[in-house]
Amino acid sequence: MVALVGAYIFAFLPGYPAIKITAFVAAVLATVVWALAERSEASHARYAALLPYSFGAMTVTCALAAATPEGGPILVLGFIGALAVGRNASLTTGSIICGLAIAAVALAELASKSYPWGTVGSVAATLLGALLIGQNSRAYQLRAQQAAELLAKSEQLRQEQAWTAALDERTRIAREVHDVLAHSLGALGLQIEVARAVLTDSGEVSRAVELLDQARRMASEGLGETRRAVHALRGEISPLPEGLAELSANHQRQHGTPVRFEVSGEPRPLPPDAGLAITRAAQEALVNTAKHAPYQPVDMQLDYTGPGTRLVVTNHLAAGNADSNGSPAIATVDGGYGLAGMRERLLLLDGALSAGQQGSDWIVEATVPQ
Q1: Which residues pair with 368 in a beta bridge?
Q2: Virtual CA dihedral for 282, 345, 275, 182, nearest 10 degrees?
Q3: Longest dimension (CA), the chain
Q4: Is 281 within 8 Å of 346 (Cβ atoms)?
Q5: What are phi and psi for residue 12, nearest 5 degrees?
Q6: What residues does each domain of the chain span?
Q7: Residue 165, SS3?
Q8: How far apart are CA 223 and CA 78, in angstroms?
Q9: Alpha-carbon distance 150 to 153, whole Å?
Q10: Nearest to 118 by CA among 59, 60, 66
Q11: 191/208 Cα distance (integer angstroms)
Q12: Do 340 and 349 touch, CB atoms closer than 8 A?
């Protein structure tokens, strides 16, 4: 555009006053600076600060040249300069530059004593119109850039959320696998310890074989529990009362301990994590009864009457680790699994767990929100 206007000016307009040559040179220099700035990001950072000044000089000189006789076509270059100023400078800077150009034209017209105020008006309207168009383009460009930055931040946040969700899921799976294996292996180790005690203390081979058969069944049930844990991780978990009733029956069958299970209140559905936490607390409490008070009755109550869902496991404490029939003592099996882990699991759900002795009973209480 600059080349075409320059060719027209010097080919068809009479005379070559200095202001026309100056305006064309300013336009060429401004175009060169703009080309350098747009060449690359590094070049833009280097030359961007020069753009308002170069296009400002182009606007002022072209406006003055347009006010000369036969200089009207040069106003096209003034329009381009004002437009570029609007796109590359603030409204204040652009207004100052256009104001200087209009003032220079007005002073030139006054100095010529011809007072053609129509020329001043056309120059002012052209420059201010170009400035407004440039400012609108600048605002659109800034909004597009902000939208792109916001989209990039949103994508980064989405990736971080996905990564956090993956870490939470890995932690959940690791905790569940640990709890299932610790319970199953702890109970299995306890059963094997009983069989060893029978063989070493009384030499009852038939009783030891029976205990080992129970250990084999416990191993099989441990595999089934692992499968159920996988279903629970997928959100496929059986109703809590049914699961606890089955758990109580299995414990009574495996350890020969009377277990009474009852439900109070109207059962209500719980989130899978909450139901699983209650189940794991019940399993740990039952394993502890077999370790520390074998063959003593156990009461398990699932209570829905309060604001939350509450499990209470009560176990009578015997004087020692042998029952009234003189059964062999059972050594504690330390599987690295305990109520502390259950308490941490429940705290993650805004629940609570307490365990302690009340009279001759040991009571474990686990609560999750409704």
Answers
A1: 309
A2: -50
A3: 133
A4: yes
A5: -115, -20
A6: 2-154, 239-370
A7: helix
A8: 84
A9: 5
A10: 66
A11: 10
A12: no
Q: Please compute Rg for the chain using Cα positions.
A: 44
pLDDT, tens digit, for every residue of 75-133? 777 787 788 888 878 888 888 888 888 887 777 766 666 555 677 778 788 888 888 88
**Number of alpha carbons in the 13 Å side-chain half-sphere of residue 349:** 24
Contact 333, 189 (CB under 8 A): yes
Dist. CA 366–CA 362, nearest whole Å: 14
Q: 215-244: per-residue pLDDT in tens? A: 887 777 777 666 666 665 555 556 889 889
The C-alpha atoms of residue 310 and residue 369 are separated, in whole angstroms, by 9
Q: Tokens for 92, please give them.
A: 């204040």
Write down the residue that tokens 């109520």 correspond to: 339
- Return the structure tokens found at 239: 């109703």
Measured in residues, the chain has a length of 370
Q: What is the pLDDT of residues 243-279, one digit of tens each?
A: 899 889 988 887 888 999 999 998 888 887 788 889 8
Tokens of 291: 């370790």
For 276, the token pair is 């699983």
From CA 44, how far away is CA 35, in angstroms rounded? 9
Fold of 239-370: Heat Shock Protein 90 (3.30.565)
Decide if 241 contacts 263 (C-beta within 8 A): yes
Q: Which amino acid is at 93?
A: T
- Distance, in Å, from the CA atom of 61 to the CA atom of 79, rounded to the nearest integer, reads 12
